[in-house]
């Protein structure tokens, strides 16, 4: 019901942000407290969210999960694959205003 009504009953006491779910508020509050409860065992970096730790671990493993279907290149991040694939289709979304 909350999603459909777009209610956000969980208000942050430190700023004006509000959230639909309690767990989102708890995660957000770490911005204010500086708490970083998610730490891996490969380095000293710690993160506010588990998903951030998972993304960071890829740096240590070297895993490149995003493989180009047109060539042999692979990338750590999906965005980098998308940007690379533009080369194959000739897409150039940015234009110089000077020429």
From TrEMBL:
- State its location(s): Nucleus
What GO molecular function annotations does the UniProt record carry, in alphabetical order?
A: zinc ion binding
Per the record, its GO cellular-component terms are: nucleus
Q: Which UniProt keywords apply?
A: Metal-binding, Nucleus, Repeat, Zinc, Zinc-finger
Q: Which SUPFAM superfamilies match?
A: beta-beta-alpha zinc fingers (SSF57667)
- What range(s) does the C2H2-type domain occupy? 10-37, 38-65, 66-93
In its UniProt record, which GO terms are filed under biological process?
Answer: regulation of DNA-templated transcription
Looking up InterPro entries in the UniProt record yields:
Znf_C2H2-type, Znf_C2H2_sf, Znf_C2H2_type
**Cross-referenced Pfam families:** zf-C2H2
- Give the protein family: Belongs to the krueppel C2H2-type zinc-finger protein family.
Alphabetized PANTHER family for the sequence: RIKEN CDNA 6720489N17 GENE-RELATED, ZNF44 PROTEIN
- Listed name of the protein: C2H2-type domain-containing protein
């Amino acid at each position: 019901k909350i999603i459909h009504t777009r209610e956000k009953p969980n208000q942050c006491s430190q700023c004006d942000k509000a959230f639909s779910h309690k767990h989102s508020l708890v995660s957000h509050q770490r911005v204010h407290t500086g708490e970083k409860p998610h730490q891996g065992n490969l380095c000293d970096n710690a993160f506010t969210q588990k998903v951030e730790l998972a993304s960071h671990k890829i740096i240590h493993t070297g895993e490149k999960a995003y493989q180009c279907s047109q060539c042999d290149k692979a990338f750590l991040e999906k965005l980098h694959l998308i940007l690379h694939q533009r080369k194959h289709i000739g897409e150039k979304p940015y234009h110089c205003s000077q020429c």
